[in-house]
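Bug #77: duplicate submission created two jobs. Keeping one. Sequence:
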Amino acid sequence: MCRMNRDRFGQVCVSKTIKMLLSQLAFACKQRHIKTMRNYRIFFVCIATALVALFILDKQQQILSQWAFKNVEDISKLRATSRTQNKMPDTDTFILEKAEQRPPLSSLIADKEANVTGDVQFLLDFAIIGHPKTATSFQLEWFASHPEIQAYTYEIHSLQHGKPALLVSQLYELPAGSKYKRGYKAPRDVKHVEALESLHKYWPDTRLVVGLRHPVTWFESFYNL
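Kept job's structure:
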């Protein structure tokens, strides 16, 4: 790839050189600085040399492009052959099999109104817990746009109501797979002691996102509601 970029750079340099020579030739002719045939020949030789160099670089780039395309095809065939010989499952199958190995919901909670009875750390990787009017909606939409992040696009207030088991059931309904990161948004959880205690008790390794904002613009945002 670096070789092809260097060749492309060479083409640009040769093209600019030809343009510069032509402009100088036109200027010299206009000002009648070229008075002998020998000077004309020198200019034409320079232009012809630059054109030949441009032609050679173009051919070389075509050869390198064909070589790179062929290598990509060979690598794809090699990976396919290795996967067939070693009987390696594809990525989707592997993720699905791993997702099926997660514990059933019944072993994590007794019911949505009861307490959590199992290890639920794997269900929550991040939580946007504050503060209101600090771009929490934008953060959630930005996170959710990533193909490997699963999150609800609306606020989840389960912990504020003292129902961690309900949050577990909601997170459990998100698409399964070890490659996914899961999260939720509740901008007022940061000031609810019960919500913070639940996060500390059931999700100690979860990353907590807390937004800050200049006080003046923060009050202006509430005023503009």
